[in-house]
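Hi R.,

Here's the chain you asked about this morning:
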Amino acid sequence: MTTHAPHASHTVTLPASLDEAVAALTAMPAAVPVAGGTDLMAAVNAGLLRPAGLVGLGRISEIRGWQYLDGHALLGAGLTLARMGRPDFAALIPGLAAAARAAGPPQIRNAGTLGGNIVSSAPTGDTLPVLAALEATLVIAGPGGGRREIPVSHLLAGREMLQPGELVGFVRVPLLHAPQAFLKATARTGPGRATASVALVLDPARRGVRCAVGAVAAMPLRPLEAEQWVASIIDWDGERGLVPEALTAFGDYVAAACIPDPAPPEDGSEPTALPPAALHLRRTVAALARRALGRALS
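And the predicted structure, written out as tokens:
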């Protein structure tokens, strides 16, 4: 269905299926898809975006739920943050549920969607570090009923971009059946944008630890060496607990990897120190990573 607002040049299309939405975007290359609109309307209100048309995704029921598939959860891109925060979803993917609950006030969680969080790719997007740590895969719907899959990290890093007419339809997440944690720091008390966030998941089947740090860079950062080190000292067949010194060392390892010291000058002079704001951010990341690992192992 296409409606034209009186005395306006904007076209609003309300497709009933994912393929109809793709067809609408293919027919109107200048149109913008919209689900919850939390990021889109902020850009419009700030004068940063003037879409020639909108393709509303709110009527597409196939992307508003989830299903199980070969040891994975196939999450619809239209899942709201509020829905992901509920207990049944938290039992499935606890880290993603925790991020959804921390995403902001109720009005934001009720409208904002998983797909919107991904496509907007804001550095402070709360679900993004969890998806990076889970090594989630995006199912992209394209013209002619086409489907392709890309790692979420490729889209966030700009290595693979959405082509004209394409939409994120689903997110494939492995079900690890193991503890997960998400923590974030904000500049004020209560819901707010993250100044730093940490997602941590355990993968007992592979005897691995996966960690991603959000909000400190343009995309979530994976401290791979820190992951490998801490995984090597965990007793996977026993209690899995670590002494406080090991938790602290892990936090420092993660923070130093994500907020490194300045490179030494080429002229051999004394290296410059991190500015106070960066040092404070590094301490924040270290504390979040230490606590997240402690919670996952407890």
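Residues 1-9 have pLDDT under 50 and may be disordered.

Let me know if you need anything else.
M.
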